[in-house]
Amino acid sequence: MGELMLDGNAIAGLLQEVFAVEMTTAIGTCGRCGTAGPVGAIHVYRGAGIVLRCPHCNNVLAKIVKNDSQVWIDFQGIRTLELAV
Amino acid sequence: MARTALRGRLTWQLAELVKTVAETPRVKTIVFDVPGWPGHRAGQHVDVRLTAEDGYQAERSYSIASAPAGTRVALTVQRLEDGEVSPYLTGELRPGDKIELRGPIGGYFVWEPAEGGPLMLVAGGSGIVPLMAMIRTRAAAGGHTETRLLYSSRSQDDIIYRDELEQLTGNGLTVVHALTDSQPPGWTSYARRVDAEMLAEVSPSPAERPRFYVCGPTPFVEAVAESLVRLGHDTRAIKTERFGPTGR
């Protein structure tokens, strides 16, 4: 499992595609442990979909599934996202 | 740093191959001309998309190896024998050929000369690529930021950018190699995997507040990051970029 772990950097293009802004410097706060940190440092697991986990407590922050025409995002574990505008 | 300009939606654009440079038997640098390239910061990457005749598309991310220089963008790609994209990029693409690319992407694993140091760069294999962009950007800016690179390769022949690193050494840049699998006769540097003891010897002390950039295969990055935290370095000063089996 550890072999497949990447960082938020690895999905920077996908996130920018969705949000239309650079997202890896955005600060996300985990809904379980409350740790706040840059999206670029979040742990990312790639399989059939993409799972984002808190690097501190391993809580599932979000799940992303993408096909050719749609992106589906479940933000179940993120309390806040803070970004420069 | 966080307040840099935000770009809009990413768009795919055509990039034309200008030249290729063989770095090691398995690694090539491919230099593209990208019309309208807005410039980039060291540590950023691009996404590359290849489309087959039947419409099948494969997308991969590659770190930018070059310092910002007009519309030229250099990527350094390791050929993965079972890969979908890297064999094409390193073996079949010829000067004048075009591919689709989008970027620059990312703002977290990024260093700019104004951010200062001391910088401690730790690379495993082709994880050197974004760190080389930092070293080249530092050199191009004429900076003297104290910078140390600890670079782990399998053998001497696998060291990417070996000659250029040697030329850039000095002026505040120290390069330390570790060769894990085989060493040439008379090798006096490290001959093992990067470990906590090695990191303690090569890195500035926690009191000097170094900024770490660690890039390599996931297990390498895990081991280095854990060791750095155990040595007392601030976790917030340790930025990591892991590349998984798809090989960045």
Q: What would you say this structure looks like, in words?
A:
The complex is a heterodimer of chains A (85) and B (248). With 85 residues, chain A is mainly β. Chain A has one domain (2-82). Helix content of chain A is 9%, strand content 40%. Chain A has a five-stranded antiparallel β-sheet, with no helix packed on it. Chain B is an alpha/beta fold. Chain B folds into two domains: 13-105, Beta Barrel (Elongation Factor Tu (Ef-tu), domain 3); 113-243, Nucleotide-binding domain of ferredoxin-NADP reductase (FNR) module (Rossmann fold). Chain B is built from five helices and eleven strands. A six-stranded antiparallel β-sheet of chain B has the order 4-3-6-1-2-5. Chain B has a five-stranded parallel β-sheet with strand order 9-8-7-10-11, with helices on both faces. The two termini of chain B are 25 Å apart. Residues 1-6 of chain B have low confidence and may be disordered. Chain A binds chain B through residues 2-10, 12-13, 16-17, 20-22, 24-25, 38-41, 46, 84-85, and chain B through 1-4, 6-10, 45, 47, 61, 102-103, 105-109, 218-219, 222, 239-245, 248.
